[in-house]
Amino acid sequence: MAFREVSVYEVREVLRVWLGAGSAGPAPGLRTIAARSGVDRKTVRRYVEAAQAAGLRRSDPPERIDDELVGAVLETVRPARPAGHGAAWEALVPFEEQIRAWVNGDGETKPLSVTKIEILLTRQGCTVPYRTLHRFATERCGFGSRETTVRVVDGDPGVECQLDFAYMGMLDDPDTGRRRKVHALIFTAVYSRHQFVWLTFSQTLTAVIAGCEAAWGFFGGVFAVIIPDNLKPVVNQADQFSPVLSSGWLDYSQHVGFGTDPARVRSPKDKPKVERAVQYVRGNFWAGERFTDLADAQDRVVRWCAETAGMRMHGTICARPLEVFIADEQPKLLPLPAVAYDPPILKTVKVHKDFHAEIGKALYSLPGQWIGSTLDARADRELVKFYHRGQLVKAHPRQPAGGRHTDPSDLPEHKAGYAMRDLDTLVATCAGHGPNIGIYAERILDDPLPWTRMRSVYGLLGLVKRYGAGPVEAACDTALTLDVISVRKITSMLERATETTPPALPAAAGAGPTRFTRDPSEFATPRTHLHAVPNSDHTSQERNR
User: What is the H or E stretch that residue 33 is in?
Assistant: First the structure.
């Protein structure tokens, strides 16, 4: 029979039966005592003999079996061992350092198993039971050592809520037409253990915030502190002392009003309540169920949280979580925000050389000093704000995708009008150099598509810069008099310095000789030859000559 240490209660029962307690007849023998107390007959004999040696008699009442008597019996039967261990344990003490080296290993050899250590000790002449060696290696040499843990108090009601993602299974996604992984974002109240589950296909910041908004509505308020795992949307850089939270999560927590205390990396003990809840949700709700889609699963899990998980008898708090939550926690939650959270677009943008930066597929202008710089941008439904090292540098009304909002003051003064196609400002600039220049600019822009003529007006301003306002004013006055609207003509006049020369008007038709004009005398016939009749004979004679 294997060794089994008899408990104090069993020793007390052996002695009580030996005295005849509960027996109507004579006192039972050792065999009967062993059968009634469940102890071996030889063991019964040893304890009875030790009790008799301590002064117990069969005629004594059962009250004689007190703690002092039982202690004396046990001291006789099981004498105290030196240092609390037997001879086999003491035989291992000289080999403690060697056993520790085998257990921990070194840079060249790997740690050894207790079975192998037993073989090596036997070769050195130390033969002990395996169980003794295992206890020795565990207690003294660090074999299979485990860190101890302590239970942390739950804290005040309504303060802490632990948060964690957990994989549930697969569901059909009607939007993509394929099966996708379903994750559960589980919220567990530390004090009452009441919980809420949000199912999602993704683990993005948008999904986490959507789950939080649904949770606050389910709980009827907001917990003061959220203890999440190191979720990527929440924690940018994990650290034991100073974790860096993401900008999006900080923006949301500031809007709602709760604090965040992330758990350490690979430290489930930092959030044990929600860690245990993961197995419960997966096994009690998800396992064996069939859902048509994610919406159906979400409706059913909300009912499950309230009716099943909330109304079960919790083994730790020995109460129903929903009842404890309503009585103790819900009145102490933070109120829900008066304004619903508007999920913003948070990103880092670069200001390009066209004085604009892009966010949400729309363009927004910034002053020239920020060209080439990287700014932090936040865009909600109403405004787009740009920050540099936390300082607001520009704000614009939100534009739809493909839109643009440009502040003329952000552009260079000499280019703002052209970029904005500001005709009035352009004409006013020309008029500032002279009234005729302004009128001439108006005449140039008098077109069904005036912005196509802006380049000509800028050319006119270039002439002012080159020749001065006076000559250009005179040239425009002359051109207006002749009703000639052409910047090229103005340029020609200024190059030849004829802007002040009176123009030569063209002569009227027929006022002067032309190229092929002939004198009338060239076409005249002598009148003497018109009246003479030549003699035919005379003529013949003259011809014969």
Answer: helix 30-37
